[in-house]
Amino acid sequence: MNWVAKELGTSADQLQIYIEGTLALSSNVQPCDTCAKLQNAALTLKDIDGKQIKALGQVINEFAGAGTPPSEEQMAMIATALNNPKEGTQYALAAKWLNAMAEYTNIMHNDLKLPTNEAVTHVAKYVSPVVNGNNAAVAAFVQAKLAGLGG
């Protein structure tokens, strides 16, 4: 709970009151499970060793040059390549990172009941290094995915 409170920029006491009011309305959502899922998604997004973001760059660069944003057709081809990837591939690593971005946003919005724009603002702190990175194709693809989440 303390981690989630820090993540939301509030005190643990305020978070506890908020969770009791918000999550109590849904009998199928457990606060501890929600906090653990959110923390796992954030850990994936941090990509401590950089393997997932590197894999994402490799996948995107297969379809679009690093210097220019992908076209709509290239975006669609990248999304298709990342849909149900084979385990142990760069596609799987890239998809894991992108899925964590969506999961983080969904947990913030659906479970913690934050407005979509606020949920996207919270996930943006994890994706901003990629969006502001020096690979225009990766930045554009991630920005488009973020926009699709409501950002």
Kindly describe this structure:
- With 151 residues, this protein is an all-alpha fold.
- Helices cover 72% and strands 0% of the residues.
- It contains eight helices and no strands.
- Helix 4 (51-63) packs across helix 6 (90-111).
- The longest helix has 22 residues, at 90-111.
- The mean pLDDT is 86.
Looking at this protein, list some descriptive labels.
151 residues; mainly alpha
How many β-strand stretches? 0
Radius of gyration: 16 Å
Q: End-to-end span in angstroms?
A: 26 Å
User: Helix count?
Assistant: 8
Q: How would you state the average pLDDT, rounded?
A: 86
Strand fraction? under 5%
- In sequence order, what are the helices and strands, one letter per element? HHHHHHHH
What portion of residues is helical? Answer: over 70%
Give start-end ranges of low-pLDDT stretches. Answer: none
Structural class: mainly alpha
Shape summary: elongated
Largest sheet: none
